[in-house]
Amino acid sequence: MSGDHHGEAAAISAHVRHVETLLEQRGLVDPQELDRALTAFLAGSSPASGARVVARAWSDEGFRTRLLGDANTALPELGLSMGGGLQEQRLKVVENTDSAHNVVVCTLCSCYPIALLGPSPTWYKSEAYRSRVVRDPRGVLREFGFELAPDLDITVWDASAESRYMVLPRRPGGTEGLDEKQLAALVTRNGLLGVAAV
Amino acid sequence: MSRINDVGGMQGFAPVEQELDEPPFHADWEAHVFAMNRALIGQGVYNLDEFRDAIERMPPEEYLASSYYEKWFHAVTTLLVEKGVFTAAEVQHD
């Protein structure tokens, strides 16, 4: 964009460095610890865990029932938890069916099942999505190129600091022969949030 | 009274724009703000609720004009001053 834009980026970058240096001098942050924390965060920065959960639910009816009943107690079956962040969060998994569709938002800020999906995309945190998806969900889905059938009910779930939501998408047809790994590869982040079909 | 972060149902915002193959951070400083905040909460300098509050009480025009991690950095510096870790002059940068 403009030179001003680059100037602002350089200014905030220098300001962040300044505050980080102050914190290091005060012994409040350890640069090596910051690097370790970032590496760990980025290592989990994909929706792969959420996709594994969905693939298991599609393949194992007992797991699906447990997941929809109490996701937090079902996740450890896959070696997963909602405790990857600063505090353990409640997770509710909401299931798409042939008559009902679910979409996830955090109208107040950016609450998101980060432990399973990694960092959230910018659109999820935008005022545009947060303000509009609760008023006109079908219109917003259309902006994602997703035309929801008019006979499907739609529910928008508004996350909070303590409670997060993830969508269990409908299993695509013609996937009967696929194993869990192949099924997981079909699952997208947008599908796990309900702004796309899988 | 609701604050500016409470945008659910508010009218007048533009269509949603997706960024394809979006990276977790768009600049190195964003990653540093993320890590710093995590460390400060981990050390008990402030807690997650205080952090969110510091974002949500930003002046509306500043809130709406700031990117996601600009809001985070605003909250970090606000809380460092309010908690008495640094003075406002110390966290300033020319």
Please state the second-level CATH architecture of the domain at 28-91 in chain B: Orthogonal Bundle
- Give the overall silhouette of chain A: globular
- Name the strands of the widest sheet of chain A in spatial order: 1-4
Q: Estimate the helix proportion of chain A, in percent.
A: 40-55%
The number of helices of chain A is 11
Number of strands of chain A: 4
SS-derived structural category of chain A: alpha/beta
The averaged pLDDT of chain B comes out at: 93
Category by helix and strand content of chain B: mainly alpha
The CATH homologous superfamily of the largest domain in chain A is called: Nitrile hydratase alpha /Thiocyanate hydrolase gamma
Q: Based on the structure, what is the oligomeric state of the protein chains?
A: heterodimer
Tally of domains of chain A? 2
CATH fold-level assignment of the domain at 28-91 in chain B: Cyclin A, domain 1
Listing every helix as H and every strand as E from the N terminus to the C terminus, the arrangement of chain B reads HHHHH
Count of separate DSSP helical elements of chain B: 5
